[in-house]
């Protein structure tokens, strides 16, 4: 079971992005091979982001949904009364749980939202090209601000991508770039 506050999770992502950037810039030092998607959760487990006004948001990973609730309440410092509003539906690996209090200060509801791009990548989930923001796309290896903007503009002008290979319609993105970022995408 793993807990990472957002600042640590972002730090991990920065390190991963730096390594990917070095691999892209110095191919003679780092021979080409498929880049594995990073994972911080147990195999077959679940990893979600939890937010509540009384705590710093953080990622919590556990093998089962029940252990996930216990980890969020115990290790993240979520108030214990939030256990009774834990979502009943199955959570996807890329869920963000936002716990809210009633007027009396008791945990009364939870809203399930999608995780932002950085948290998705840290959890090993990947980005959806048709939903990712420009800020999310910059996190992909070999995609800078200019290419990220072109990806979003192309998606808006020409319609959604049907597969990662559709990225070659953007000037400056070739098959090698597509293959480099393919492990970081979900379809």
Briefly characterize the structure.
With 187 residues, the protein is α+β, with helices and mostly antiparallel strands.
What does it look like?
Helices cover 33% and strands 16% of the residues. It has six helices and five strands. The protein has helices at 6-25, 65-74, 117-122, 134-137, 145-158, 175-181; strands spanning 2-5, 46-51, 58-62, 95-101, 107-114. Strands 1-3-2-4-5 form a five-stranded mixed sheet. The chain starts with a strand and ends in a 6-residue tail after the last helix. Mean pLDDT is 78; it is low at 22-42.
Keywords:
single chain; 187 residues; alpha+beta; DNA polymerase, domain 1
Layout: helices, strands, pairs:
Blueprint: E1 2-5, H1 6-25, E2 46-51, E3 58-62, H2 65-74, E4 95-101, E5 107-114, H3 117-122, H4 134-137, H5 145-158, H6 175-181
Parallel strand pairs: 2-4
Antiparallel strand pairs: 1-3, 2-3, 4-5
């Amino acid at each position: 079971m793993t807990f990472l506050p957002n600042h640590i999770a972002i730090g991990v992502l920065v390190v991963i992005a730096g390594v990917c950037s070095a691999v892209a810039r110095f191919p003679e030092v780092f021979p080409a091979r498929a880049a594995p998607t990073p994972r911080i959760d147990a195999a077959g487990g679940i990893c979600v982001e939890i937010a509540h006004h009384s705590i710093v948001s953080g990622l919590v990973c556990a093998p089962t949904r029940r252990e996930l609730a216990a980890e969020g309440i115990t290790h993240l410092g979520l108030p214990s009364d939030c256990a009774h509003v834990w979502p009943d539906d199955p959570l996807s690996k890329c869920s963000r749980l936002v716990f809210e209090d009633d007027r009396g200060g008791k945990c009364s509801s939870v809203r399930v939202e999608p995780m932002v791009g950085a948290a998705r990548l840290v959890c090993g989930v990947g980005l959806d090209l048709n939903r990712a923001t420009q800020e999310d796309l910059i996190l992909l290896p070999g995609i800078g601000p200019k290419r990220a903007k072109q990806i979003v503009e192309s998606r808006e002008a020409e319609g959604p991508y049907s597969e990662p290979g559709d990225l070659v319609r953007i000037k400056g993105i070739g098959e090698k770039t597509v293959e480099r970022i393919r492990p970081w995408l979900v379809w």
